[in-house]
Amino acid sequence: MTGWAHACAVRVQRRLLAMTDEPDRGDVPGWVLITLMTAGIVSVLWFVAGNALTELFETAIRSVTPSAG
């Protein structure tokens, strides 16, 4: 193997080994923030429109459920 080919192979090998040294840990703070924001949005919607959403759900269930009688 010539000098430049060997040097190129060594660089590629080092780069591949560097990629496997650090496992992909993900973005934990980002996921925590998304989870908290989602919980906040659901809480606000539930507080503001809880009765209307409950009525909407009950009406939808009554429309697809056969009546007893």
Structure description:
The chain crosses the membrane at residues 31-53. There is one protein chain. The protein is 81% helix and 0% strand. The radius of gyration is 29 Å and the shape is elongated. It has one domain (3-64). It has helices spanning 3-21, 28-64. The protein is built from two helices and no strands. With 69 residues, the chain is an all-alpha fold.
Task: List the topology elements.
Layout: H1 3-21, H2 28-64
Keywords: Membrane, Transmembrane, Transmembrane helix
Transmembrane segments: 31-53
In short:
With 69 residues, this protein is an all-alpha fold. 81% of the residues lie in helices and 0% in strands.
Question: Which properties best describe this structure?
Answer:
membrane, 69 residues
The share of residues in extended strands comes to under 5%
- Report the oligomer: single chain
Distance between the termini: 89 Å
Tally of DSSP β-strands = 0
Which parts are unreliable, with pLDDT below 50 for 5 consecutive residues or more?
Answer: none
List the total number of helices: 2
Described by strand count, sense and barrel closure, the largest sheet is: none
Helical content class: over 70%
Q: What is the number of independent domains?
A: 1
Helix and strand string, N-terminal first?
HH
**Bulk shape:** elongated
Summing up helix and strand content along with how strands pair, one would put the structural category as mainly alpha
Rg, Å, rounded: 29 Å
User: Averaged pLDDT, please?
Assistant: 82
